[in-house]
Amino acid sequence: MSKTNNPKSREPLFEADRIYTDTTSEGGDFRFDAAVARVFPDMIRRSVPGYTTLIPMIGIITARFAQDGTRCYDLGCSLGASTLAMRHGVGDRDCQVIGIDNSPDMIERGRHFVALDDHPALVELRCEDILDTQLENASVTTLNFTLQFIEPGQRPELLSRIARATQPGGALILSEKIRFEMDWEQTLQTDLHHDFKRANGYSDLEISRKRSAIEQVLIPETIGTHRERLLDAGFDRVTLWYQSFNFVSLLALKQA
Ligand SMILES: C[S@@+](CC[C@H](N)C(=O)[O-])C[C@H]1O[C@@H](n2cnc3c(N)ncnc32)[C@H](O)[C@@H]1O
Ligand SMILES: O=C(O)C(=O)C[C@]1(C(=O)O)C=C[C@@H](O)C=C1
Fold this sequence. Notes:
Blueprint: E1 4-5, E2 12-14, H1 34-47, H2 51-65, E3 70-75, H3 81-90, E4 95-101, H4 104-116, E5 123-127, E6 138-144, H5 155-165, E7 166-177, H6 183-199, H7 204-214, H8 223-233, E8 237-244, E9 247-253
Parallel strand pairs: 3-4, 3-6, 4-5, 6-7
Antiparallel strand pairs: 1-2, 7-9, 8-9
Helix pairs in contact: 2-3, 5-8
Bound molecules: S-adenosylmethionine and prephenic acid.
Prephenic acid (PRE) binds at residues 43-44, 47-48, 145, 177, 210, 214, 218.
Function: Catalyzes the conversion of S-adenosyl-L-methionine (SAM) to carboxy-S-adenosyl-L-methionine (Cx-SAM).
Enzyme class: transferase
InterPro entries: CmoA (IPR005271), Methyltransf_25 (IPR041698), SAM-dependent_MTases_sf (IPR029063)
């Protein structure tokens, strides 16, 4: 894996993900800390099937739903990959693009990526908890693999706040790792996901150590649960626009 250089600091912008190769380190739950932030672009590309397809599609969806005089939020923005896709989707519309993440390491590194992206639309990255942050006047909101890290009991209120903040004709893009009700389907889709990771150079040991580390912090739900909760939260329509194995993206709409 080659390193990408940051011309401003001469430090690599990111490194190859070798976090779970180190068998001497303690286990512990997965956290979005400095070590993860340093390897995140490599980690997410090799771990989430279709991530490199999803990101530009978020730009395309944003271009359809962004409205002049509104805000576009990217909640759990990490290094800002989805935020920058939204920025490009907004084009020359009068929109404020706001990326929010509660990991200081992600936000600090994310600001370098934003600075390197040459585009006139303003982007603000905020280090805040999305459970506390005020949301208002939104046309497009993205939760790209973030809701899965929120404690399930807190998910309905967060989605209701997003729905209330969304203007008529606005949208929420919700990407998640999901689980399946049928045991055979859960087993097959998980195996295929692990095949994908293996094909991307992760060893069986790395796969199994990461699996244990995320077990208590990444809680997947079924597509049915997501759909129902989005409608309960105040969205009028929900469509599945992307699936690759156990990773999906839904589009929830407020009527115009
Ligand atoms: C899988 S990453 C998101 C990837 C990113 N959206 C992208 O497309 O590259 C999940 C992010 O959610 C953030 N996160 C988790 N819980 C959060 C919370 N309560 N408030 C803000 N950010 C949160 C994590 O710090 C992490 O950066
Ligand atoms: O499910 C896994 O095995 C993953 O590695 C997925 C996942 C995610 O969906 O966010 C978990 C943590 C990292 O943020 C990158 C990818």
